[in-house]
Amino acid sequence: MTIKRIFDFAHNALEKYAREDMFVTKYHGEWEKTSTQEYINMGNQISRGLLKLGIKPGDKISLITTATRTEWAVMDMGISQIGAVSVPVYPSISPEDYDFIFNNAEVKYCFVSDRELLDKVMQIKPNVGSLQGIFTFDQIDGAANWREILDLGKDEATQTEVEDISNSITANDLATIIYTSGTTGKPKGVMLTHENIVSNVLASDPRIPRVKGLDYKEIKVLSFLPICHIFERMLFYLYQYNGYSIYFAESIEKMGDNIKEVKPHLMSVVPRLIEKVYDKIYDKGTSAGGLKSKIFLWALGVNKAKQGIGKPSGLKEIIADKLVFSKWREGLGGNIITLVSGSAALSARLNKMFQNAGIPILEGYGLTETSPVISVNSFGKIKIGTVGHVLENLDVKIQEDGEITVKGPSVFVGYFKNEEMTKEAFTEDGYFKTGDIGHIDDEGYLHITDRKKEMFKTSGGKYVAPQVIENLAKASKFIEQIMVVGEGEKMPCALVQPDFNFVKNWADRKGYQLGDKPEELVKSPELIARIGKEIDYLNTKLGSWEQIKKFELTPNIWSIESGELTPTLKLKRKAVKEKYIKLYNKMYGHEE
């Protein structure tokens, strides 16, 4: 069948790839499978139930879940095939943002996964005139449950109405509004049509590796990134398109256990997760002591010295792989074909290390506004330090100032209720302005160098690209997070959040009595001096105008909940600066 709308992926899966374990979610400690046929049946029930509730094409329905689960998939299909518009929302954003999104989108019904999210939505319900009801996936006393919609749609007599509406939906109809968290300001509602998402899935599909002799029925995917983010959601449709079984992870905290249980072949990741996985591996390897630690560090040296990337060649590499890197692969379940990385820049150092450890990472690039993939590496054509070749159905143009602009079927139609912002987002000849700076090399690989808005100019007139410096700095075991500052100032400086767990272990090894609390640790002369050495080393890799002249340690862990990071773990630069304005002023000698 021809796929033109997002719900076509489900019907295509039934036609070509029907399986007993299309989706698998863990409930009360047990993995529960949903077959392709059950998925279609429940999706149709939801559609019929929503129609009985009075939902019409164009109405907005919000979906919020702490962890992705089968119910989300069923709701997505049921909503989309009757022309309603899904409004997925991050679970971690503030009630104020919920208030804004619900009112801006005029949400009619909301489906949440659990008690905590129900309480959050109930807080803002009195402020949202359009909101007629809230349903939960978990059984919660006193709350309407999503199964009430399934029950409403049990009668198949109205299925013809569902099919009539479904047949009338075109590729150009609006499928979803995704509100980007952004690093500043109010969320923006990105309007994506069915064609936007479908075209991106079909163009990205050739970049996913196939393994000879491995049938689609054997392939399992572990999905743990928020499905409200277009990166994971596009992959969710791509996996359906290939007939793969999708296991939904319980949480990031339980991901290690879930990987061992599922033994996935494919997973999407963000760079921060790769960093954390490596930190865990490194800590375990170096703390083993004696011969084990020596072998571990020797293997890392062999990995680093390897020219290029690929399978082990030569005796040293083969021994290092057998003794050390095979264990890394076992830790990821033993079946990983590839990890797909997006959302932010991945350290070239870590990328090379994992590639040479037999864990290929396909790094890509895109934005919510581009549904999301603009470019991605593929097997046999991986070039570390780049985000691969541009998808075949897109046209990328690098503007004179280095900004990456793009045109094509996956580029969004505009920001909801904001024509002025939509107009500003495009060039006069219709290219979407990504806000990223980059270039395409002679081999056609796209390189991202920084965010246009994040680049700043010092008072001496020199431009500084903070993200490049930050990625280099995070190679240090001592630095968990760092933000380079200096807009309009005489020199770059940095706010640093140490890796407190690593610091405590380091202090114990050294016999330092630095205290246990972060606020005690950041004041210790020993730690300040040690991180100073890390900054000094970093500066040897930088031009004189971009070297970090001063730094301050922050006593808190930067997180989504405390407001320093977006839900996709990017820095909220304005929020970080405001929170640590006293430290900022101290570095620059400003009067308070």
Automatic annotation (TrEMBL):
One of its GO terms (cellular component) is membrane. It comes from the Bacteria. Residues 24-416 form the AMP-dependent synthetase/ligase domain. One of its GO terms (molecular function) is long-chain fatty acid-CoA ligase activity. Keywords: ATP-binding, Nucleotide-binding. Pfam families: AMP-binding, AMP-binding_C_3. Transmembrane segments: none annotated. This is AMP-dependent synthetase.
